[in-house]
Amino acid sequence: MKQVHSSFIEAVQDIHDGATIMVGGFGLVGIPENLILALVETGVKDLTVISNNCGVDDWGLGLLLKNKQIKKMIASYVGENKEFERQVLNGEIEVELIPQGTLAERIRAGGAGIPAFYTPAGVGTPIAEGKEVRVFNGKEYVLETALVADFSLVRAWKGDKMGNLIYNKTARNFNPMMAAAGKITIAEVEELVEIGDLDPDQIHTPSIYVQRLVVGKQQKRIERLVVR
């Protein structure tokens, strides 16, 4: 059985200043919002955050950003956050923007123990500057290195007390690969069940990748409401 924490603060209390963390989610879908709120409360700073995006101004990773707790952001998209734009233009934060497929594969490679791989994405652009480029079958490919983290914060729909996780539909997004690429993975689950209650064929993240569990409900905010 994995350690089940009684509070979100307790689950993240050893995330230290200067740590590298991966945070699951796509927009506001599948983000470990309660773990993020706990980090805001702890006041940990100088974080390097690896995530698809930086949330919105008043929710998700946008709260850490607003609180000046993020030193560097590694992401594929940051267009919905005005505070992020302001900090970038003022030189207050370091940013590494990565093509989304490359970001996903760098994280997956980190979890699989693969140190690097070649991809055609970014060849001939500033993304390839300073990186090795090789030709395979007449086509250029740039070498990209894997990403790993000190801590991975993920959100699941259901988990059992062994740490096996199931994600809800598109909330799966970056969560499974980040769970595998963190030295310590902390899973925020909506429902915790007994060992044996999950269908083995439906498990998305095996327990081997999860070190900590914490249970809590999410607000599930809508990032952008579009109506006719």
From TrEMBL:
GO terms for molecular function: succinyl-CoA:3-oxo-acid CoA-transferase activity. Pfam families: CoA_trans (PF01144). PROSITE patterns: COA_TRANSF_1. It comes from the Bacteria. Keywords: Transferase. InterPro entries: 3-oxoacid_CoA-transf_A (IPR012792), CoA_trans_fam_I (IPR004165), CoA_transf_BS (IPR004163), NagB/RpiA_transferase-like (IPR037171). NCBIfam families: pcaI_scoA_fam. This is 3-oxoacid CoA-transferase subunit A. It comes from Paranoxybacillus vitaminiphilus.
